[in-house]
Every structure is written in structure tokens, then in C-alpha cells.
Amino acid sequence: MKSTPMMAIGEVAARFGLAPHVLRHWEAMGLLSPARVEGDRRRYGRDDLYRIALILRAKEAGIGLADIRRMLTTTDPAARREILHRHREDLIRRIAAAQASLALLDCALTCEHEDLATCRHFQAMLTERVGQAIATGPHTSKGEPAAVR
């Protein structure tokens, strides 16, 4: 792969669709350490670009900056795996929720009823969510589910 020339903060930020202050913040948090040249100006190389891409992908997966820093700076592979396993489980849960939402939208797009709320097939798509709301929702003093608002 061809060597990447050193780039200024503005150019790197623009290539990733970020504001320069984001890269400065990540540097302050210990996530980045770009080279410095005349006048203490930051210069980013190929390795920095990969680090930025990794940070962005980790954020897209729902990992917060503090955990990203721990993941990147730890020398303990078990600690890194613990962070990754924890976030993997959360991501699996969010993917399942997104897939259920997509299925609901697909169902609505193919429904011929004027009012979706009266469609038995559409209601069936929501049965699990309604059951969760009843099981975990607020209760009256008599232990009965409170009225839906």
C-alpha cells in the first residue's frame, strides 16, 4: 500500500466528515497522538487514519470513548476481551431490536388495511412488545397494571 503523506488536522477531519475539534478532543482523551511539526502543528499519518477509522467504527458499535481508550491502551488481553464481550452483547441486542423494527415496517408497507392498528397481522408483530409493557409497566397499589396513557 502506498505511503500516506502527513496531513493537517483540517484535511483529516474533512476526509472523515468530522470537525477538527473532535480530533483535538480525542487527542486530549489519549485516543490519538499525531506527530507535531513546526509551530506545534498536528500532522496525521497512515497509522493515525487507521486509528480514527477504528474509533469511528467502535462508536458506531455503541462503544463509548472511555471504553475505546481502555480497549486501545490496555496491555491485558483479558481486559480488552471483557470490554469487547460486553459491547458485543449490547450490539447483538440492538441489532435484534433493529431487525424487529424493520420487520414491523415491512409488515406495514404490505398491509392493505386503512388503519394499521386494526390489522391482526400488524398487531401480532407487536404482541411481544405489548406483553413486555404489561409485565414491566407501572402498577396500581392493588398490583394491577396502570392504564395506558
What is the terminal-to-terminal distance?
60 Å
Number of helices: 6
Which fold name corresponds to the CATH topology of the largest domain?
Multidrug-efflux Transporter Regulator, Chain: A, Domain 2
Shape: elongated
| CATH class division of the largest domain | Mainly Alpha
Low-confidence stretches: none
User: Radius of gyration, Cα only, in angstroms?
Assistant: 24 Å
Largest sheet composition: 2 strands, antiparallel
Strand content: under 5%
Quaternary structure classification: single chain
State the secondary-structure class.
Answer: mainly alpha
Spatial order of strands in the largest sheet = 1-2
What is the annotated CATH architecture of the largest domain? Answer: Orthogonal Bundle
- Helix content range: 55-70%
Count the strands?
2
Average pLDDT figure? 88
Tell me the count of domains: 3
Secondary-structure element string: HHEEHHHH
